[in-house]
């Protein structure tokens, strides 16, 4: 008798109020996913350690000792969509314990486009200019007699 290797999708994906699983979703949905955990996630699109921020997070232990734990963190960019949302969300967040920059950013697609345009303008302003585009140097002329 042949066995089937097909994976049965979680029943909550068949709910008529649920958004269908997008093509970019990594899957991994389980039958017992808590309703707050029922989401579609893309792979990490970018993950890096910003060099201008402290590379470590610090948090006080919850055991009442007054001691702190620390560790490295990195910033991640990915897409998520809650199971009943009709539109995806663009997420920029620290990946370890929500890190020193708080909860991160969750942006609508339209908001992410606005941020992309603003970042593009900022990059254009900050990028080194080609020699021909630089402000011309003052011309030095001989002193008049």
Tell me the major beta sheet: 5 strands, antiparallel
Rg = 25 Å
Distance between the termini: 107 Å
Shape: flat
Instruction: Flag low-confidence runs.
Output: 1-6
Average pLDDT reading: 78
Secondary structure tally: strands: 7
- Total of DSSP H or I helical runs spanning 4+ residues: 1
Helices and strands, in order, run as: EEEEEEEH
Helix content range: 10-25%
Structural class: alpha+beta
Question: Could you describe the 3D structure shown?
Answer:
Helix content is 12%, strand content 23%. Strand 3 (56-60) and strand 4 (68-72) form a beta hairpin. It has one helix at 109-126, and strands spanning 39-41, 46-48, 56-60, 68-72, 75-82, 89-94, 105-108. The strands form two sheets. Strands 1, 2, 5, 6 and 7 form a five-stranded antiparallel β-sheet that branches. By secondary structure, it is of the alpha+beta class. The model is unreliable at 1-6 (pLDDT under 50). The chain starts with 38 loop residues before the first strand and ends in a 19-residue tail after the last helix.
Keywords:
5-stranded antiparallel beta sheet; alpha+beta; 1 helix; disordered N terminus; single chain; two-stranded antiparallel ribbon; about 140 residues; about 10% helix; 7 strands; about 25% strand; flat
Strands, helices and their partners?
Blueprint: E1 39-41, E2 46-48, E3 56-60, E4 68-72, E5 75-82, E6 89-94, E7 105-108, H1 109-126
Antiparallel strand pairs: 1-5, 2-5, 3-4, 5-6, 6-7
In short:
The chain is an alpha+beta fold.
């Amino acid at each position: 008798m042949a066995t089937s290797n097909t994976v049965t999708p979680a029943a909550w994906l068949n709910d008529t109020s649920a958004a269908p699983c997008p093509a970019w979703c990594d899957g991994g949905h389980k039958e017992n996913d808590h309703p707050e955990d029922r989401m579609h996630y893309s792979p990490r699109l970018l993950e890096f350690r910003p060099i201008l921020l402290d590379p470590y997070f610090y948090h006080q232990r919850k055991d009442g000792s007054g001691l702190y734990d620390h560790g490295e963190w990195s910033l991640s960019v990915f897409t998520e969509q809650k199971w009943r949302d009709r539109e995806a969300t663009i997420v920029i967040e620290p990946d370890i314990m929500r890190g020193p920059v708080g909860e991160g950013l969750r942006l609508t697609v339209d908001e992410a486009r606005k941020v992309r345009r603003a970042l593009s303008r900022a990059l254009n302003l900050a990028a080194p200019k080609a020699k021909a585009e630089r402000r011309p140097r003052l011309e030095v002329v001989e002193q008049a007699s």
